[in-house]
Amino acid sequence: MPKIKSHRGAAKRFSKTGTGKFKGSHSFHRHILGKKSAKRKRDLRKSSIIHCSDQKVLERMLPY
After folding, report:
1. How many CB atoms neighbour CB 9 within 10 A?
2. What is the H or E stretch that residue 16 is in?
3. Cα distances (Å, whole numbers) of residue 19 to 14, 16, 24, 26
4. Which DSSP state fits 35?
5. pTM value?
6. Residue 24, SS3?
7. Is the dihedral of CA 64, 61, 55, 12 positive or negative?
8. Helices (H), the chain
9. Beta carbons within 8 Å of 17's beta carbon, 6+ residues apart
């Protein structure tokens, strides 16, 4: 059996935690920031745990 390749685009955006979940950064924090509140922009800086419905897709993309 050959090794499975990781999806390189997903590998640059998501990382696996110790418990096997995936974490990544929030969207909506690149541009058009003037209308967003300081609290909202501050919260978007932090990483977030990816929802369980998307985890199944990421497990196939990032097997290792």
Report:
1. 9
2. strand 14-16
3. 14, 8, 15, 20
4. T
5. 0.83
6. strand
7. positive
8. 8-13, 38-45, 52-61
9. 23, 49
pLDDT, tens only, 16-39: 999 999 999 999 999 999 999 999
Dist CA 33 CA 14 (whole Å): 23
Angle at 27 between CA 23 and CA 32, to 5 degrees: 155
pLDDT of res. 14: 97
3-state class (DSSP) for residue 21? coil
Rg, Å, the chain Cα set: 15
Q: Token pair for residue 29?
A: 């924090």
Q: How far apart are CA 46 and CA 55, in angstroms?
A: 19
